[in-house]
C-alpha cells in the first residue's frame, strides 16, 4: 500500500497523529528509542526532518534506526535536497509556498527529483505554509509568515495549493512555537479545502491537541513534546486527545 493511501485511509476514519523526529537533535539510537515510544503511544507515522544541521548521513542513520524500532511508516520531511534517505517509506515533496526564495518554493525540489525517482521513494505532494511566529522553519525558510490575525490569507494559500493539485496542506507555526495556528484559522482553512489539513508547531498538551483537532485539523504533528519528556505516557495522552 502506498503511504499516501495509508494516510488518506486513516484520515477517512478519524484524526491522525504524526511524530516529528529531528535527526540533528539526538543520536540515531536515541531517535529509534523515541520512535519506539511514539509507536507504542499510538502515533500513525514518523516524520524525519529538521531545519538545520541535517546531513544525508544523519538522515540515513536515523531513518534506518527508526525503521528497525517502529512499525509505522517513516516519511521524510526534508528541509532541502540533502536531507533524503533511500530507506524511508515516502517523502513529503513539499513546497514552502510563502517563502521569498524560489530555492525553497521549487529549487531544492528540482535538485531532489532525480534522486527520488532513482531510489523509488514515494513523493507525497504537500504545501508547507508558515504561520506566525514560524520559529526556525520561518527564518531558514525565508518565509513571509501568515499573520495570526489573517485567516483569509491562509485560506488563499491553501486553495492555491489544492488548485495546483497538492494532496496535503500543512499549517506550520514552527517547532517549539508557544501556540499552534489559531483555531479560527484552522477552521477557515478546513472549511475551504477538500484535501487533508495538517497542523503542527506548538502543540504540547492534550487540551491544545483536542482543540486543534476539533477546529478541523485532520493530521496533527508533535515533535518537541516527545523529545523533551521522552515519556510515552505524555504522548499517549496527546494521541488519545487527537483521536477522541
Ligand atoms: C514542526 O510542526 C512540527 O515542524 C512540530 O512542532 O516541535 O512544536 O511539536 P513541535
General description of the model:
With 244 residues, the protein is of the alpha/beta class. Helices cover 46% and strands 17% of the residues. Strand 2, helix 3 (56-69) and strand 3 (74-76) form a beta-alpha-beta unit. Helix 2 runs parallel beside helix 3. The chain is globular, with a radius of gyration of 16 Å. SN-glycerol-1-phosphate binds at residues 20, 137, 172, 175-177, 200-203, 221-225.
Structural classification: alpha/beta
**Assembly annotation:** single chain
Shape: globular
**Average pLDDT level:** 97
Number of strands: 8
Poorly predicted runs: none
Distance between the termini: 26 Å
Helix percentage range: 40-55%
How do the strands of the widest beta sheet line up side by side?
1-2-3-4-5-6-7-8
Percent in strands: 15-25%
- Summed up, the helix count is 10
The name of the CATH architecture is Alpha-Beta Barrel
What's the arrangement of secondary structure elements?
Blueprint: H1 3-13, E1 16-21, H2 28-40, E2 45-48, H3 56-69, E3 74-76, E4 90-96, H4 102-119, E5 122-130, H5 135-140, H6 151-163, E6 168-172, H7 183-192, E7 197-200, H8 206-215, E8 219-222, H9 224-229, H10 232-243
Parallel strand pairs: 1-2, 1-8, 2-3, 3-4, 4-5, 5-6, 6-7, 7-8
Helix pairs in contact: 2-3, 6-7, 8-10
Amino acid at each position: 500500500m502506498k503511504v499516501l493511501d495509508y494516510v488518506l485511509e486513516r484520515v477517512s476514519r478519524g484524526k491522525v497523529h504524526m511524530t516529528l523526529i529531528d535527526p540533528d537533535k539526538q543520536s540515531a539510537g536515541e531517535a529509534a528509542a523515541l520512535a519506539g515510544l511514539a509507536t507504542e503511544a499510538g502515533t500513525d507515522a514518523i516524520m524525519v526532518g529538521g531545519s538545520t544541521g541535517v546531513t544525508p548521513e544523519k538522515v540515513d542513520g536515523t531513518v534506518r534506526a527508526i525503521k528497525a524500532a517502529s512499525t509505522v511508516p517513516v516519511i521524510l520531511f526534508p528541509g532541502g535536497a540533502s536531507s533524503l534517505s533511500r530507506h524511508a517509506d515516502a517523502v513529503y515533496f513539499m513546497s514552502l509556498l510563502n517563502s521569498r526564495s524560489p530555492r525553497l518554493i521549487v529549487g531544492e525540489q528540482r535538485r531532489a527529483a532525480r534522486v527520488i525517482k532513482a531510489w523509488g521513494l514515494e513523493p507525497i505532494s504537500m504545501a508547507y505554509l508558515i504561520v506566525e511566529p514560524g520559529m526556525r522553519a520561518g527564518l531558514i525558510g525565508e518565509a513571509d509568515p501568515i499573520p495570526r490575525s489573517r485567516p483569509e490569507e491562509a485560506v488563499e494559500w491553501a486553495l492555491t495549493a489544492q488548485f495546483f493539485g497538492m494532496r496535503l496542506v500543512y499549517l506550520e507555526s514552527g517547532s517549539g512555537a508557544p501556540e499552534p495556528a489559531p483555531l479560527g484559522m484552522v477552521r477557515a482553512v478546513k472549511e475551504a479545502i477538500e484535501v487533508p489539513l495538517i497542523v503542527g508547531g506548538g502543540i504540547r498538551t492534550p487540551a491544545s491537541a483536542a482543540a486543534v483537532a476539533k477546529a478541523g485539523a485532520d493530521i496533527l504533528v508533535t515533535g518537541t513534546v516527545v523529545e523533551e519528556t521522552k515519556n510515552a505516557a505524555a504522548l499517549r495522552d496527546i494521541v488519545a486527545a487527537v483521536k477522541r
